[in-house]
Structures are given as structure tokens and as C-alpha cells.
Write a sequence for this structure.
């Protein structure tokens, strides 16, 4: 495992564990640097930072911003942001404001497809109603026996062209980069392998992002295949972007990659933690036990 995880979720958005439990779980998995990156909300960062300090885990305040780009929803992670930044807070408030209306429209579409009670059902799963999301609908739909897991729900009901999908205008790519930079953070395109876009569209997205001053892309993340690892390693290196890694953990039973359990696969571009100046021993040194034998690798980050 690589002892760093720069993308995960708590009950502040659509995760199943409260922020403190997410951090404790990551620490238990050997994580030494963690970023909590809830969707469009900064509320979990205080308690997560305190819990991380108790566990000797280095903590990076983060966020995952929903962005509309062409006809796609793209996610952008902000790393090492200042949660007190007014421009970021106001931007996120604006992004959150459309969720309740979208949820009502989603429930209408699902009702027409024979799934009743979805609005109330989804809100039952949303600890923070302001962040009502597709994942909450997915959990309700699984509970009702319409699909075997949340991945199947997304494919059958919640993506473009399916009954529960509602197009929504999120932040623009430029706004998201600007808010993250205003807060002193690094802007990273999340799970680029997940977007339904062909090679030239992806090139456009990356090009536009770079032109706006974007900093990095995720290379190792739970929704990427081994081909994706290779592909985005190459793209990051060729575009001069930083490479990031993160589990995108939401719940113990929903992902094969646990929080703090990101596989230690090679990165070809400069890792984002080097740009952040994190004091992280090289993974091969950790694996060989060279540092552990003299004690330095076992010391938690300051
Ligand atoms: Zn995402
Ligand atoms: Zn995420």
C-alpha cells in the first residue's frame, strides 16, 4: 500500500461514515497522509483534522467540486485548501443550491420508471440534506430490491439517458480552478477515466484545464482499470501535470479500495505530494524496511 490517500468521502456528502471514523479507518490501514474531499462542502474538515492529529496522520483539507463541462459532469478535487477562504465558501454554496430541485426531478423520473418513494427514501440516507446526491438514491434503490448494488443502479437508472438522470448546471471548469487557487490549493481532475468522452474530447478537457492553470490529474483511483493507470500516467507526464492518488472511498461495502488502502503502483509524472512538499519516504524504501529499521519511517508526519 502507498501510505497516502488524497480522495475520500464522509457523511458530510455521500459517504457512509462520519469524518472522524473515516480518518480513524485510514490510520488503521497504515495511511500517513490523508485528504478528506467531500462533495461541495467543507463541514467535515475541522473534526477530520483534529482526529488525524490524534492518530499521527498528516491531514490535507480537501473538497471535490462538481463541474459542468460541455454535456458532462466532471469532478475536480481541491487539495490543501484553506477552508476559511471566502471565495471558495461562496462558490460551494452556489453549487450546493441546485441539489434539492434536482433531487425532486430525479424522483419524478424514477417514479415514471416504477420506483416510488425515491425522494423520501434518498433523504433517509442523506445525513446532510444539502448534499442530496445520486449515491443516496442508489442506496434506496438497492434497498428496495431494484438492483443488486449501487454500481448497477447507476448504470440502469442514474446516468445520462436513464430515467433518474437530470441534467444540472454545476460550477464551470474555470470557476472551480479559480476557487481552489484562491484558497491556496492545488486543482486536480478526479477519476478522469470515468467520463464518457472520446480521446479527443479528453484531450480538450485536459488542454482547457491546463490553460486555466489546473495542476494535476488522478492516476491511481478505485474506478480506474489497469489500462487507465497506464493511460493517465502517460497523459499526466506528457501534459506536465502532477499525478494524484486516492481511494474515492465512500463506504466499506461499496468499494474494493479501502480508505488509506491505495495500491502502490508506479507513477510516471511528479506526484502531487512532492509539489506540496510533504515529507513522505519513497514507497520502495518503506517496503524494503530500510527506514523502518532505524525508526524514521515509523514516525508520523508532524
Ligand atoms: Zn467524483
Ligand atoms: Zn469522490
Amino acid at each position: 500500500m502507498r501510505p497516502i490517500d488524497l480522495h475520500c468521502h464522509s457523511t458530510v456528502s455521500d459517504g457512509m461514515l462520519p469524518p472522524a471514523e473515516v480518518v480513524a479507518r485510514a490510520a488503521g490501514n497504515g495511511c500517513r497522509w490523508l485528504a478528506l474531499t467531500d462533495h461541495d462542502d467543507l463541514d467535515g474538515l475541522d473534526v477530520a483534522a483534529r482526529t488525524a492529529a490524534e492518530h499521527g496522520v498528516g491531514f490535507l483539507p480537501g473538497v471535490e467540486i462538481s463541474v459542468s463541462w460541455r454535456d458532462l459532469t466532471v469532478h475536480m478535487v481541491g487539495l490543501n485548501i484553506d477552508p476559511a477562504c471566502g471565495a471558495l465558501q461562496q462558490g460551494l454554496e452556489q453549487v450546493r443550491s441546485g441539489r434539492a430541485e434536482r433531487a425532486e426531478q430525479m424522483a419524478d423520473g424514477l417514479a415514471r420508471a416504477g420506483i416510488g418513494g425515491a425522494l423520501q427514501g434518498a433523504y433517509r440516507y442523506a445525513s446532510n440534506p444539502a448534499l442530496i446526491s445520486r449515491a443516496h438514491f442508489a442506496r434506496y434503490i438497492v434497498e428496495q430490491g431494484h438492483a443488486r448494488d449501487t454500481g448497477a443502479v447507476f448504470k440502469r437508472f442514474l446516468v445520462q439517458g436513464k430515467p433518474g438522470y437530470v441534467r444540472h448546471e454545476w460550477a464551470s471548469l474555470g470557476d472551480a480552478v479559480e476557487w481552489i487557487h484562491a484558497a491556496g490549493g492545488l486543482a486536480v481532475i478526479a477519476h478522469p477515466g470515468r467520463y464518457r468522452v472520446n480521446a479527443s474530447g479528453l484531450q480538450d478537457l485536459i488542454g482547457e484545464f491546463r490553460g486555466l492553470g489546473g495542476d494535476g490529474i488522478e492516476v491511481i483511483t478505485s474506478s480506474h482499470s489497469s489500462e487507465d493507470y497506464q493511460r493517465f500516467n502517460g497523459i499526466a507526464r506528457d501534459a506536465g501535470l502532477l499525478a494524484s492518488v486516492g481511494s474515492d472511498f465512500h463506504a466499506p461495502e461499496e468499494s474494493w479500495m479501502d480508505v488509506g488502502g491505495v495500491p502502490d503502483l508506479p507513477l510516471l509524472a511528479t506526484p502531487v505530494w512532492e509539489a506540496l512538499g510533504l515529507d513522505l519516504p519513497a514507497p520502495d524504501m518503506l517496503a524494503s524496511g530500510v527506514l523502518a529499521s532505524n525508526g524514521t519511517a515509523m514516525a508520523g508526519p508532524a
Observations:
- The pocket of zinc ion (ligand 2) is lined by residues 7, 9, 64, 190, 248 (CB under 6 Å).
